[in-house]
Amino acid sequence: MEKVLVIEDDRHIAEILGMALATQHFTPIVASDGGMGLSEARRLLPSLILLDLMLPIMDGREVCRLLRADEKTRHIPIIIVTAKGEEEDRVAGLELGADDYVVKPFSTRELVARIRSVFRRRAGQASAAGLVRVGELEIDVDRHVITIANRSVNLTIMEFTILQRLAQDPGRVFTRDQLLTLLWGEDCFVQEHSLDVHIHAIRKKIEADPGHPLYIQTVHGVGYKLKEPGHQRSD
Fold first, then answer.
1. Statement to judge: residues 7 and 116 lie in one domain
2. pLDDT 10s digits, 17-30
């Protein structure tokens, strides 16, 4: 059973999350403050983390930052679950490296659907064996490693999924709806701006000039594509 670490100081919400996860055959582990959550994440290496932002001992943003900076935990998917629902809060959370952002009050059914979407993306990456090269950009699907000009790049699962899909069909334009469905499935309601935040985060990591991207290009009014001459793919 997949272990899900819930870092939440509100006992009532933690109990609701724990029951919802157990009902869906996940193994919930609860930490009631940021310091404990960080320690448990490093000790248990859970399959996924549900992270509140407003936590005692250590703020959720700092927890997220430290998890992403640690080699052992940087690839663990993180879904932020918080009452902070303003657009700038969502952008800040996703730019920290969170894979998704859910605002309280939330539907446990939708939250579970988003968790399953994360696991499906991870399984899809594991099954899509091969090495994709686009110019100086190299995506090793088997090892979940990204390099640009021989420099290692750390991406979240969400960011990796977007880049991998675009790189498999360079030059093809993916609509926003297609990418949203790829990331969250057809049953989840997600603000389109969340996709833009992830694209922006990828560009900051792989583009020499994110303001004039070479790799991920915007097709205005439609979506995104990856375009680079001399593309090769080897399986």
1. yes
2. 999 999 999 999 99
